């Protein structure tokens, strides 16, 4: 495997206080700890990760819980159309149509080990669709909000990702 490149971990990211919140248009809002995710049915996903900055990490193996499994517990209402996945840093987020989001993985392991903090641990959203853009992979994923209206441009991290400098820390 080629290594994923990384950017500095924001000071607001605290892995000890991490929880995954499922909010918005759901019948059962959730607050899940890492142990709760590990107790759910897990699966694997392997693929290359190609970044808009021009680098590629080949054949990464992720392990975790599908967003669909988590949403199945939260029970989105009939009005839910999209999801917004927010990062613990309070700045980064990405939106997806609800049906597309269900196949994404909430990765808790990378290459058989806990996802390192610099690569988005303790849990990173990994889209599994072949047409996913790198900026849709949300490091430090801490909230999945089910939306009842189409997301806006400010609901996506694309601008942040595309404006980042290309000086990784690894």
TrEMBL record:
<dbReference type="InterPro" id="IPR000572">
    <property type="entry name" value="OxRdtase_Mopterin-bd_dom"/>
</dbReference>
<keyword id="KW-0614">Plasmid</keyword>
<feature type="domain" description="Oxidoreductase molybdopterin-binding">
    <location>
        <begin position="8"/>
        <end position="150"/>
    </location>
</feature>
<dbReference type="InterPro" id="IPR036374">
    <property type="entry name" value="OxRdtase_Mopterin-bd_sf"/>
</dbReference>
<dbReference type="Pfam" id="PF00174">
    <property type="entry name" value="Oxidored_molyb"/>
</dbReference>
<protein>
    <submittedName>
        <fullName>Molybdopterin-dependent oxidoreductase</fullName>
    </submittedName>
</protein>
């Amino acid at each position: 495997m080629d290594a994923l490149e990384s950017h500095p971990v924001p000071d607001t990211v605290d892995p000890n206080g991490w929880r995954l919140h499922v909010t918005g248009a759901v019948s059962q809002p959730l607050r899940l700890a890492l142990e709760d995710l590990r107790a759910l049915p897990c699966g694997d996903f392997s693929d290359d990760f190609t970044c808009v900055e021009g680098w590629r990490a080949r054949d990464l193996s992720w392990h975790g819980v599908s967003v669909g499994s988590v949403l199945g517990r939260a029970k989105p209402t009939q009005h839910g159309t999209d999801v917004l996945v927010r990062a613990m840093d309070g700045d980064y987020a990405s939106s997806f149509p609800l049906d597309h989001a269900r196949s994404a993985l909430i990765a808790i392991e990378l290459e058989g080990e806990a996802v390192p903090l610099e690569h988005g641990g303790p849990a990173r959203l990994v889209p599994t669709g072949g047409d996913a853009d790198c900026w849709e992979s949300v490091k430090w994923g801490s909230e999945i909000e089910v939306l009842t209206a189409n997301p806006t441009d400010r609901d996506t991290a694309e601008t942040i990702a595309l404006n980042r400098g290309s000086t990784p820390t690894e």
